[in-house]
Write a structure and sequence with these properties.
Number of strands: 4
Distance between the termini: 97 Å
Mean pLDDT: 81
Order of helices and strands: HEHHEHEEHH
CATH topology of one domain: Glutaredoxin
CATH class of one domain: Alpha Beta
Strand order of the largest sheet: 2-1-3-4
Low-confidence stretches: 13-43
Shape: globular
Number of helices: 6
CATH architecture of one domain: 3-Layer(aba) Sandwich
Helix content: 40-55%
Structural class: alpha+beta
Radius of gyration: 30 Å
């Protein structure tokens, strides 16, 4: 019986010791200010930009994937500096998602499409569907030249 009492006593002391040792750790955590936020860096957006968007649906054939790949390559290779500065924006949008369905009506989309859109002061002022992407998809050089020429032409205006 005396052995059990010594064991309980030792166990109790051990638990008290653990609790006492953990109190400073919890106190340290609580002393960190809750209002510390990481520094935010603001990136200024240009007042005038070209937004190049590949619109697709959930169901896509190999040709549709190829058009997206070639479009992305053309924009990223010819307009690297403009992409970095925000003067050109590249994006892809799935019009099958409910929040994006309005683009079908906005741009009269009937298939996967590459749209170049001019934005001034946050408002779209004009847009064009680059429909010849379907004609040039089998000729990568012509496809690249077509997309490059269309975007470059708009940037010069």
């Amino acid at each position: 019986m005396q052995l059990i009492n010594k064991s309980i006593y030792s166990l109790t002391l051990g638990m008290i010791f653990l609790v006492m040792m953990s109190v400073p750790a919890f106190s340290a955590v609580e002393s960190v200010p809750a209002t510390v936020e990481p520094a935010k860096t603001e990136v200024s957006k240009p007042a005038h930009s070209m937004v190049v968007t590949y619109f697709y649906t959930s169901v896509r054939c190999p040709t549709c994937h190829k058009i997206e790949e070639l479009s992305s390559q053309a924009v990223k290779s010819h307009f690297e500096n403009e992409l970095k500065s925000g003067k050109v924006v590249w994006r892809t949008i799935n019009v099958d998602e409910p929040e994006n369905a309005h683009y079908n009506k906005d741009y009269q989309l009937y298939t996967k499409s590459l749209i170049v859109s001019e934005v001034k002061d946050g408002k779209e002022v004009r847009w064009k569907n680059l429909e010849k992407i379907w004609v040039f998809v089998r000729d990568e050089a012509q496809f690249d030249q077509y997309v490059n020429a269309e975007i470059a032409g708009w940037l010069k205006e």
